[in-house]
User: What shape does this take?
Amino acid sequence: MFHLAKRCERIDASGIRRVFDLAKALKNPINLSIGQPDFDVPAPVKAAAIAAIESGQNTYTPTQGIAELRAQLRHSEQQRSGRNWAEDELIITSGVSGGLFLALLALVEEGDEVIIPDPYFVMYKHLVRLFGGTPVYLDTYNADFGIDPQALEQAISPRSKLLLLNSPANPTGRVLSAEELQAVAAVCKRHHLAVLSDEIYSAFAYEPAPSMSAFYEQTLVLGGYSKSHGMTGWRLGWAAGPAKLIQAMAKIQQYSFVCAPSVTQFASLACPEIDLRQPIAAYREKRDLMVRLLSDTFALAPPQGAFYLWAKPPSPWTGDAFAEAAIKAGVLIIPGSVFSERGSHFRMCYTVPNEILEAGCRKLVELAKAGPS
Ligand code: PMP
Assistant: This one.
């Protein structure tokens, strides 16, 4: 008889599962739910992967990742943020999810509090809970989904271990400016609070998206190529931060993931040569199209980055009821309560062809105007 560990009861997957269950009955839904780009892995990166396989790069790699890629990432992080990470301050992980897993397992203990700005990427609260920590939600609805330094200060307690930042953000598309990050850094410094900064969407920004690591020493930066290079299935991410933490993460990686996929690591050496200006311009156009079609009907702030829209339907709809009705009407969107302690909003992902996006937006407007049945 298998008796599951109690920790399994601390997390649940019911929010997303409900969306999938509802969607199963649909024939040809307009799918605005999946958080991934709609372009394939660029040809030079595919070619590098094939070459890696054929030349026998199919074995374990060092736990921290291959030296060439680590050097390349330290260089690109320096160009992006100005931060000069040392050799032992960067580890390659199995996607940003792998980095989040290792970092939170290395840091969070029973009773620790982790401050999570709400709305949040769904994985954060579940991993914190899995490892025995307590998520402390910092409501950002009245701060334009940015971070009010005073509210942050109030959320800090003697048990606070970490602040989890995400800019550009999933699900809101919010980008934190240099001034905002500086204000957050000042509070964290005063309280000796470490920051875990998930910057997976840094390539998708329609205005400057600075890195928290530029402003605050005690930052662990997480980055990855899943989104920027259309390789969500290839599992490539990295974490850069203080050597003590990176070494602890490497120790856990040694006994869990072992290493990030070898072929992906070699293929990723070709990623920096890819010009992302065209796909980013295309997503900016989609953003503009969507905002134009939806902003008369829904309360929303034009997203500044990532590829999501976070919107509130007109009353008397709640975001959750609206998402459920939209899914039944054939437009897959995600109820806000999957990403928030509130259920007032919904999330849609706009990485679909323009005509599909337009058809989806028109249906959402129609449904919002018709009201709940
Ligand atoms: N962080 C955020 C904010 C995300 O949206 C995602 C993917 N949806 C991840 C991390 C995980 O990405 P990866 O594929 O690199 O594990």
